[in-house]
Design brief:
Mean pLDDT: 78
Distance between the termini: 57 Å
Low-confidence stretches: 1-10, 166-173, 280-289, 308-321, 344-354, 421-441
Strand content: 15-25%
Number of helices: 23
Number of strands: 23
Radius of gyration: 33 Å
Shape: globular
């Protein structure tokens, strides 16, 4: 009976948890996550991030995650825990461990009392494992109380206990001694803690760390050469000279970024060293799987999230997220401002072109240039304006269809487009130049572009957020985008190159569309007037059933009893038999024709897909070949909220090994490449799709991308 009661109580707790989040118990994990995130966004209480309502929601999430044993929800729980959210059960366990009994109101317990009780409990034991557990309980109470000082104390205690344990085991060689010994294939990189709706910031920081020239430059801060540490004037920003205050602010950003990058390196090395020492000595913590993660500096986050001067509380500010490209642009702008001017020019010389951002290594690394020509096409005359150069930090790609390929998106970007015309969407994939000429007989302006200069690191923003003029609200396009490990930019070096590159692909895609329509038509369910149930069959199945039925009538009419019955009817048995055979023969012929057509269309579908795949996969290995390095994912049905993570390509030159890493805040894991390059979205994650892409020039990828220490 006791066991049954426990099961019922657990079942009731789960039911209450689903009810609290407003979802049914049979919904998918993604919908549970959506409901939790939505309730958090709509919380109008005094403290929607860490208040009583927030803790109640988190308790429900923890209960549902445990009941389902869900990996996805478990990651969400871990991410919430990393940003300081704690469950009621964890608080109760911490109070029992430290005070010997649960405490009704943790907030009423003085922090000094908590610290003193903790020290008393630690003094009672010499076991490293027990001390570590007590320190973890202390961290739980610090988070529950939202006491920054107590939290910092708990973190320091945990670090000290780890160090003490390693010294006792002979592992006090230090980071420098271990750095050259780290197996970067076995020891995964370090994650970043979510400090309040900073999942997309964490994704950006991990990507920046993986780009070797940026990481090397940031880590060199302090050499008085790479950065403008002497605050010399002479660099322009938007046509005006930067002030020393602006330069100083940018240098603070670089300095904080350096501290973060150093922490990512140090923790990875220390994690490797601790694992080696513990494994060799049989330490009780050797098998612990707690993820290594560091917390970004709050002021660093405020600088990148355009919250400079905001308070340390992110309750209100963090709810206003910027796009990934805006955050990256802010980061690039700060890095450029921190660079020294190209020469010791006169500070009053504001017209010099040498002091702009274009001369900097960061822009040469990330920024490219388009050459844009405007043609006036008409019946009487055609005129081409002088081409203009346009710099870009990322290409803004639209998705031209329900299931598009990344090559289709690039084609659409470079395709000729009409200006100031309602006939065509300027971003639509229309590479039919004859149609374009027909539509511009009245003197229409046409915009053409080509790639004049491609940077070593090429960024692409997938334009998933659109605006509905009817509802006057933004919405997100969740169409699947097929990514390619490599792409070639050769066709786009020339005007109208997109049309030439796309012509055969477009022809094959049109054929695929037609064949798919034919195959779908064969499977369209039909329903007769005689049907009383909801059962539906396709036309092919219907033909086969009717043909079998008519064959049965013909056989029935040949039976002696049937002949005797039919003898008294106006029509003879032979007439019914011949008619049934004739109809059956026609139906058989029709069914055979459709079956042959199905086989032919299926064969054509496979061959067309195969040819299209060959075209997509053929990437000449020249200076315009690019390899995918990072994929930013946004998970959520609405652009107003959701979760970000990033996949980054990890390549170890010494072993010639390639793998993909998933950076989901503090969680870092190795994933199968099918998560990135799948033909269809992962089941249950249809709203998790590529949002921002980073490609690296293949010929120099060894010098550009690296996750070493």
């Amino acid at each position: 009976m006791a066991t049954t009661g426990a099961v019922n109580a657990k079942h009731t707790a789960a039911e209450d948890a689903y009810r609290a989040l407003g979802v049914l118990d049979d919904v998918c994990d993604a919908l549970v996550e959506w409901a939790y995130t939505r309730l958090t966004a709509e919380d109008q209480s005094d403290d929607p991030v860490f208040g009583p309502h927030a803790r109640s929601r988190f308790d429900s999430l923890v209960t549902i995650s445990a009941a389902r044993g869900s990996k996805e929800l478990g990651l969400l729980v871990a991410n919430e825990r990393e940003r300081g959210m704690v469950a009621t059960g964890a608080i109760r366990s911490a109070c029992v461990a430290l005070f010997g009994q649960p405490q009704s109101e943790v907030d009423t317990i003085d922090s000094d009392t908590v610290r003193e009780v903790f020290l008393a409990r630690v003094a009672e034991t010499s076991a490293s494992k027990v001390r570590m557990e007590l320190a973890e309980h202390l961290a739980v109470l610090a988070d529950a109380k939202q006491d920054v000082a107590l939290k910092a104390y708990a973190d320091n205690v945990l670090s000290s206990l780890e160090t003490s344990a390693e010294i006792e085991m002979g592992g006090a060689e230090g980071v420098a001694a271990w750095k050259g010994k780290v197996d970067t294939w076995e020891q995964l990189p370090v994650g970043l803690k979510n400090i309040g709706n900073t999942c997309y910031l964490n994704s950006i920081l991990q990507c920046l760390f993986s780009i070797l020239p940026i990481r090397a430059a940031v880590l060199s801060y302090g050499d008085n050469k790479t950065w403008n540490e002497e605050l010399r004037l002479g660099r322009n920003d938007g046509g005006r000279l930067l002030t020393r205050e602006e330069i100083s602010e940018a240098l603070k950003f670089v300095q904080r970024l350096k501290h973060l990058f150093e922490a990512l390196v140090t923790q990875r090395v220390e994690g490797w060293a601790a694992k080696r020492v513990r494994t060799s000595s049989g330490h009780p913590l050797a098998s612990t799987a707690a993820p290594l993660a560091v917390a970004p500096d709050r002021e660093l986050a405020d600088m990148l999230l355009l919250r400079v001067g905001s308070s340390t509380s992110t309750t209100q500010a963090s709810s206003q997220q910027q796009d990934v490209d805006e955050c990256i642009a802010q980061c690039v702008g700060l890095l450029v401002r921190a660079l020294p001017p190209p020469s010791l020019m006169d500070a009053s010389d504001q017209d010099s072109d040498l002091s702009g951002p274009g001369d900097t290594w960061i822009y040469k690394l990330l920024s490219g240039a388009l050459e844009v020509a405007t043609d006036r096409v008409g019946a009487e005359s055609e005129k081409t304006e002088k081409p203009l150069n346009e710099a870009f930090l990322n290409l803004n790609l639209n998705i031209p269809g329900e299931a598009a390929d990344i090559n289709d998106c690039i084609d659409a970007f470079f395709a000729p487009s009409e200006i100031s015309s309602d006939k065509h969407d300027p971003n639509a994939m229309d590479t039919d130049t004859s149609q374009l000429r027909a539509d511009t007989e009245a003197g229409q302006m046409v915009r053409r572009s080509r790639l004049k200069n491609a940077p070593p690191v090429l960024c692409m923003q997938v334009q998933r957020v659109q605006f509905d003029m009817t509802t006057m609200r933004a919405f997100k396009i969740n169409s699947h985008l097929r990514l390619r490990e490599q792409v070639s930019l050769t066709p786009y070096l020339h005007f109208d190159g997109a049309a030439a590159a796309h012509s055969r692909r477009h022809e094959l895609q049109q054929r695929l569309c037609t064949v798919n329509k034919h195959l779908k038509a064969l499977d369209v369910p039909i329903q007769t007037a005689a049907q009383t149930d909801n059962a539906q069959v396709s036309v092919v199945s219907a033909l086969e059933r009717v043909q079998a039925f008519m064959t049965g009538i013909g056989r029935w009419s040949e039976l002696d009893d049937a002949r005797s019955l039919l003898a008294d009817l106006p029509q003879s048995a032979s007439f019914i038999t011949s008619s049934a055979e004739h109809i059956s023969s026609q139906l058989r012929e029709m069914s055979s024709t459709l079956s042959q057509a199905r086989q032919q269309w299926e064969d054509e579908l496979r061959s067309t897909q195969s040819e299209l795949e060959r075209i997509y996969s053929h990437v000449p290995q020249d200076t315009t070949a690019y390899t995918l390095h990072a994929v930013f994912i946004h998970s959520g049905h609405s652009p107003e909220f959701g979760h970000y993570w990033v996949y980054v390509r990890d390549y170890v030159r010494e072993k010639n090994l390639v793998r993909w890493l998933k950076f989901n805040d503090s969680q870092v894991s190795v994933v199968d490449s099918s998560e990135i390059f799948g033909d269809t979205p992962k089941q249950g994650e249809e709203s998790a799709n590529p949002y921002y892409l980073v490609y690296v020039r293949t010929s120099c990828i060894d010098e550009m991308a690296d996750f070493g220490v």
